[in-house]
Design a protein that fits this description.
single chain; 440 residues; alpha/beta; six-stranded parallel beta sheet; five-stranded mixed beta barrel; 14 helices; 34% helix; globular; binds 5'-deoxyadenosine; binds iron/sulfur cluster
């Protein structure tokens, strides 16, 4: 009988793609996917540690497997990713959950197959966390699960050390992939019919800084030289390095979506300084202005954090002010979470939870109002949706427009992987409802 794997992913797009790599490794060893942990021969947890709740979530789910492991001792449990990469985390994990079989980190995720081979036929757990970055792998080992969308890493790690952020500690220094390798991977995906490619890096604007040949805007131009219809996105762009050369590249190539994710984090200059973000609110807004001057229909999404150490009501109001001024179409909002080992974790003036909660509620209210308003402006318009999936519950096809807005529609035919024009009939929620007016 075929062996089965089940992967649980926490955190960001980067992790989702890394789980595709883990899936590729498992498939190359004869495992097939199962959606049920009960049926799995191996359960892999690909963890995140960016906020405390992501860690608690993973801990809770790993703990919940204790019974199953007792009933089926042959089932393997592996835990890897950002959480285990933190100093001392692997030991803590093993102490709390001695039934875990394999522990690996971020730097050796692509070596998971070798760890699995080592574990099979051996009683003792295999624990292997590297403290240094591994070689950048160029072969695409992913088993992709999100056709017609695909993710492509262009770089790994982060050099910015924003004072709240654990990422530079668990993902190491910036390493860019060779431009030819990125272009070849994208071309291969397009040859295979993928229609939307998202380039991934913690700070895509510093792509190439470590190898010096091709800058990020040049990389985008190389990819877009393939003159056919597809969508190209990238995340994440750090505002400090976001410049006109990049905006010109977006303006010149229609494959590049007119939605830019530009995390602002806060609107108070004092807090931005404490966060080590290296820009002021004014500089941020000037970049937004430049972007909208060159690409008038360009929309913006962002990440915002509340309750950073020492944040006052006045600082928080500056964030609300900036949210109004920048007119974001979407914002991911977070309560600051104290991450041990970061500079902010040791700052005086940590903000009480009640204050953080009250602020996040006010922020979410403002952001939702802006998103709803933007949605309403869609009514009666025709938008192009790249159909991604069929929603069994709603019995509707779904996809996104280039601005990332979700749209639903009915169709007799399977539209997955097609660009479809829909006439928007309802846009009262955050997503759009429409009827097909034309097809690819
Ligand atoms: N607490 C809360 N949010 C955080 N982020 C990063 N670190 C923290 C933290 N310690 C948020 C930032 C970042 C997004 C990916 O996660 O807003 O842009
Ligand atoms: Fe974290 Fe800042 Fe790097 Fe983003 S740019 S991963 S927030 S340190």
């Amino acid at each position: 009988m075929e062996k089965k794997y089940h992967i649980v992913t926490y955190g960001c797009q980067m992790n989702v793609h890394e789980s595709e790599k883990l899936a590729g490794i498992l498939r190359s060893r004869g495992y097939a996917e199962t959606s049920s942990k009960e049926e799995a021969d191996i359960v892999v947890f690909n963890t995140c540690c960016i906020r405390e709740n992501a860690e608690n979530h993973a801990y809770g789910n790993i703990g919940a497997l204790k019974k199953l492991k007792k009933a089926r001792p042959a089932m393997l449990i592996a835990v890897g990713g950002c959480m285990t990469q933190q100093p001392g985390a692997a030991e803590r994990l093993r102490k709390k959950f001695p039934f875990v079989d394999i522990v690996f980190g971020t730097h050796n995720l692509e070596e998971f197959g070798a760890l699995l081979d080592r574990k099979i036929g051996r009683k003792k757990a295999v624990i292997d966390i590297w403290d240094k970055e591994g070689e950048v792998r160029e072969d695409d080992i992913s088993f992709r699960t999100s056709y017609p969308n695909a993710w492509v890493n262009i770089m790994y790690g982060c050099n910015n050390f924003c004072s709240y952020c654990i990422v530079p500690y668990v993902r190491g220094r910036e390493r860019s992939r060779a431009a030819e390798a990125v272009v070849a991977e994208v071309n291969d995906l397009l040859d295979r019919g993928y229609k939307e490619i998202t380039l991934l890096g913690q700070n895509v604007n510093s792509y190439g800084n470590d190898c010096g040949e091709v800058s990020f805007p040049q990389l985008l131009r190389k990819i877009c030289a393939r003159d056919e219809k597809f969508r190209l996105r990238f995340m994440t762009s750090n505002p400090k390095d976001f410049g006109e050369e990049l905006v010109r590249a977006i303006a010149d190539h229609r494959q590049l979506c007119h939605l830019i994710h530009l995390p602002v984090q806060a609107g108070s200059d004092r807090i931005l300084r404490l966060m080590n973000r290296k820009y002021t609110a004014r500089e941020y807004l000037q970049k937004v202005e430049m972007l909208r001057r060159i690409i008038p229909d360009c929309q913006l999404s962002t990440d915002i954090m509340v309750g950073f150490p020492t944040e006052t009501e006045e600082d928080f109001r500056a964030t609300l002010e900036l949210v109004r001024a920048a007119d974001f179409s979407a914002a991911f909002t977070f309560v600051y979470s104290r991450r041990s080992g970061t500079v902010a974790a040791d700052m005086e003036g940590q903000i009480p939870e009640e204050v953080q909660k009250e602020r996040i509620m006010r922020l979410v209210e403002l952001v939702n109002a802006q998103t709803r308003e933007k949605s309403l402006s869609y009514r009666g318009k025709t938008v192009e949706i790249l159909c991604e999936d069929y929603d069994d519950k709603k019995r509707l096809y779904m996809g996104r427009d280039e601005y990332g807005r979700m749209g639903y529609f009915t169709s007799e035919q399977n539209r997955i992987g097609n660009f479809v024009d829909i006439h928007v009939t309802d846009s009262s929620g955050i997503s759009l409802m429409g009827e097909i007016v034309a097809k690819e």
